[in-house]
Amino acid sequence: MDDMDEYKEMFAVESAEHLQSMNDALLSLEKDPANSETINVMFRAAHTLKGMSATMGYTNIKELTHNMENLMDRVRKNEIKLDSSAIDVLFECLDTLEKMVETPEKSSEIDIASLIGKLSRNDYVSVPLKDEQTVQTNASINPREKSETGCNIYEITVTLHESCMLKSARSTVVMRNLSEIGEIIETVPPIKDLEDEKFDREFKIIVSTIEDAKKLEDASKKVSEISKVEVKSHTGSKSREKIEEKTCVTEGSKTSIKSVQSVRVSIERLDSLMNLVGELIINKIRLIQLASVHKLDDLEETLASLNRLTNDLQEEIMASRMVPIEQIFNRFPRMVRDLAKNQEKDIDLILEGGDIELDRTVLDEIGDPLVHILRNCIDHGIESPGVRKQNGKNEKGTIKLTARREKNHVVIEAVDDGKGMDPQKMRETAVKKGLMTQEEAAKLSDIEAINLSFMAGFSTAEKVTEISGRGVGMDVVRTKIGGMGGSIKLESVLGKGTMMRLKLPLTVAIIHSLMVKVGSDIYAIPITNVIRDLSIKKEEIKTIKGEEVVLIRGDVLPLVRLHTLFDIKGNGSEELLVVVVERAGSNVGLVVDQVVGQQEVIIKNLDNNILKGVKGFAGATILGDGNVALILDVGTLL
């Protein structure tokens, strides 16, 4: 396939987009099977993916999408109705396509005969659609609302070599190259004939563009096995009518001109850039400190400019790593649909805030925890329709997944209107599993009892359905979120539902932290965990069952002396500094010697460090004086 290698990455990215489009369309059609606009979206996505796979020589993908396209064409022509059996088959095809697109070189090894048989059967319900809008036959050209082409129309005549064996592939690549610099108005023969290779060696493409004829010729000649390319002005009335219906683009309308405005950069390269920026910032801080200590006024003036530039560079690098959270959210409608159907439950998933952006690394890390949380909502939160009806609820359950920005953090909330969690059953289960005594369990507040679900092994000995709520692996979820410098909070009302709130940093490369001093060492506490800091007198400390606590505004606050935890000698002061942090829905006070202040720190992971695998630390950072400060992971520290 000689020059096809360069298109493999493009095929992978674009295929993923079309598969997502088909997935969304099918989910919509399941609710409204007669929606002609959604039917057209499904048809076009299958049609385009068919052409792409034919271009790349992936025959199995081409065959499957071709048969999907045929089924959707029957629906468009009102020959059949999209009933539940047809939609199930299309979902099955979609799952198979995802596997094939993942490793397209091995797609020929997957047997698609049974799927093609299901797509081709003639026993689907023949009921006219309620919306009989006329469908464009040349759907694959898919004209846009606004022309990106200006007012110059050219006719490009392409002649292939006599020895060309992949005529369809070559014509598709030519069209793709031309579509990057203009708008394809028409092809001769029609695009379907080009795909089916129903032409000799010559085909024509009519394009509207602001570029000149030479650029069109060069774009066409880039493709292998092209014998001749001829470009001339086009005056055909039919094409003129098509282009005049659109808005012509002028030179001043730069936002409408299609050009190469972006490049794909691997996440590894972005990680490397972030590491380099981190090192630059550390050195910048060191220089600023040296200039201050040695009173080098001239250097301080230069460093002020360096400080501004490094801050701008840091912001630009961070912005380049940000991606919309909808890239994760888009996975969930299908997952919820399949799980709900499997359990014979009726569940409506509501997604909000998909445009909120997160660092790509954070996004990758939160995918599995969110899947786990949603599975728990479906498995153990939402009741069956019959039970909901008995309890006076709507038979259809609701799960709402929302993302929003709060200062330097992103908050994601998963809320369901299911049966909620029973604190008493949580206590009973903890005792039954030997995690605590009857007396200890009885002293737990309802919030503390509910948060027992975060304990390791809490629900592994028996089915979680015997406990009214979540439990399987929630300790793993908490550890994962805490390891990113985030926090997790759980709230539940028996009979009403449950809410899980995740608070996440925008990036895991640089986090906002509260710097504290214990003995001669400095530690960083992610600001997402910090509630406030306060000062208490030694005589205010009480002891309950061997643990130190202090009463703050009527609430009991457990104290943890970091000196004792880290085996550091205390200063013996009568007044103690306490940093109040949130952990698993409750507050804990960390006793420190000094609060240094807030600072953005560059995280260095502990993969090659002697502390690798040690609980309580999320990483380390290098301070301006060259010393290392450990970053505390509150979730596993206490």
Could you give a quick summary of the protein structure above?
The chain is 40% helix and 24% strand.
Characterize the structure shown.
This protein is an alpha+beta fold and 638 residues long. The protein has five domains: 2-120, Up-down Bundle (Four Helix Bundle (Hemerythrin (Met), subunit A)); 140-251, Alpha-Beta Plaits; 269-320, Helix Hairpins (Orthogonal Bundle), CATH 1.10.287; 324-505, Histidine kinase-like ATPase, C-terminal domain (Heat Shock Protein 90); 510-637, OB fold (Dihydrolipoamide Acetyltransferase, E2P) (Beta Barrel). Helix content is 40%, strand content 24%. The chain has 21 helices and 22 strands. The strands form five sheets. Strands 14-18-19-17-16-15 form a six-stranded mixed β-sheet. Strand 16 (547-552) and strand 17 form a beta hairpin. Helix 1 (8-31) packs antiparallel against helix 2, helix 3 runs parallel beside helix 5 (113-120) and helix 10 (267-293) runs antiparallel to helix 11. The longest helix is centred in the middle third of the chain and has 27 residues, at 267-293. The protein is flat. The relative contact order is 0.06.
